[in-house]
Amino acid sequence: MSRPLLAVVGATLMSASLLSACGSDASGTDGDAGPxxxxxxxxYGLSQAPTCxxxxxxxxxxxxxxxxxxVDSLTDQNPETGEITPWLAQxxxxxxxxxxxxxxxxxxxTFSDGTPVTADSVKKNFDAIIALGAAKAALAGxxxxxxxxxxxVDPLTAQVDFSSPNAQFLQATSTSQLGxxxxxxxxxxxxxxxxxxxxxxxxxxxxxxxQDRSVSLAKRVGYNWSSPVFSHTGDAYLDRIDFTVIPExxxxxxxxxxxxxxxxxxxxxxxxxxxxxAGGQILTTPNPGVTFGFQPNVTRGVxxxxxxxxxxxxxxxxxxxxxxxxxxxxxVATSALAANTxxxxxxxxxxxxxxxxxxxxxxxxxxxxxxxxxxxxDGQKLSFTLTFxxxxxxxxxxxxxxxxxxxxxxxxxxxxxxxxxxxxALQGSGDYDAVYYNAxxxxxxxxxxxxxxxxxxxxxxxxxxxxxxxxxxQLAATDKAQRDALLATAQEQIISNGLWLPTVELSQxxxxxxxxxxxxxxxxxxxxFYDTWISGN
Length: 537
Description:
Layout: E1 41-46, H1 61-67, E2 75-77, E3 84-86, E4 89-94, E5 100-105, H2 119-132, H3 138-143, E6 147-154, E7 157-162, H4 169-172, H5 183-186, E8 204-210, E9 214-219, E10 240-245, H6 249-257, E11 263-264, H7 272-277, E12 281-286, E13 289-296, H8 306-315, H9 318-324, E14 331-332, H10 355-364, E15 368-369, E16 375-377, E17 380-381, E18 383-388, H11 395-407, E19 412-417, H12 420-429, E20 434-440, H13 446-451, H14 465-476, H15 480-496, E21 501-502, E22 504-505, E23 507-512, E24 516-517, E25 520-521, E26 527-528, E27 533-534
Parallel strand pairs: 1-10, 1-11, 18-19, 18-20
Antiparallel strand pairs: 2-3, 4-5, 5-7, 6-7, 8-9, 9-10, 11-23, 12-23, 13-20, 13-21, 14-22, 15-16, 16-17, 24-27, 25-26
Helix pairs in contact: 8-10, 14-15
């Protein structure tokens, strides 16, 4: 049966920031299934197509569900304690100023093409990320902020250096974006790396890649260097994983209930009764990182007015979103960070529903209600478009309700649903009023990635010294209390400046058949199938 993750506190640089969460990780739906059985194929229904087969370029949950199985990382992160553990690196040393990280690699590890995993592999992978650039590898590039190079000390020792302190980097080495790939993959162009030919050292390999339709992974025979986070060693139990893209929630649920699939993504509240009636189970865990919310382009349209941005925060009834569209597996957002993220600051007194406060802010700023109920100022309607994708199956229903809530205070919210590739392109171009998304990472540094001037800066803002100093300072803070204080300041600045208008915290909600055992979430709430097995196959 599923079991709750343990809440934890405290951290050191050597173990990175600790993660606390509530939810469930491994889950076998049949408590009498017995010991794990090798063999069989897991048939998995994705709610959205993976964008790219390259872990370095992947960002969405559905993409990482696939790419995580193919690559190993230098380190791993324990989802129950947040501790950073060995994986491809058996140990590491960190300089006192957090500018230099030396990794001592395990001997005998190979990529699936038979070539060894060496210190030179680390260098080539990290150099290639820098070469890809922020447009192609936004998250991976942000983890390597200030990267000056990797020195191959000896075949199994790599020293990674930065021009300034980078305290978040050890945790970053546990992510799939910094997973290592073979020279043959690293040498390819960004586009070639998205076609399902990637070679990693992970427990599965790509067997087939059909863009926007399906992906098949095959077990790698001879795999024997899993991290201690997993519950077994040696080969994966599953022979194969077949991912099928099924955007319609009802179709995914029906396929699971009729034994055409073994597990599915984004099991919405209305899906649970059908899944459970068929003997299946709902597995859930909250996502750490940036909550779902609006990120306004502060240089464009009505959202250039700080009062408009500030009024939107109390105009949103987040509990109504949970009660109407979602369920108790989800939580209201109370900051820019989700509550289980290291460095989270509770700003619920600022991020709360107060319709009269929203109206008062708009009144004071000169936005007057028109005959149609929508406010106006200097001949301009209080109207803007929020661009979003269906990266989470509940997004449209959530935003349609928010649309009604904002209309009640005189704001005309228009919804712009686009495909994930279109959404990514729009973010890069800056051609939007506001974008709606979340960003998952089990480290508060995700704020720098999302809001920093040298990060994605989707607000297109200028300098805000208090925010910029906090985002830069937390990179140099090796003391947890000091780092948490800086991250708290950053969250306060982000909310007070209206740079993030939070709605809800995302949770991963997976439907699993009765015979699907040990589906596990990693520390960033992404699925890991190394321990998964099928009973009675």
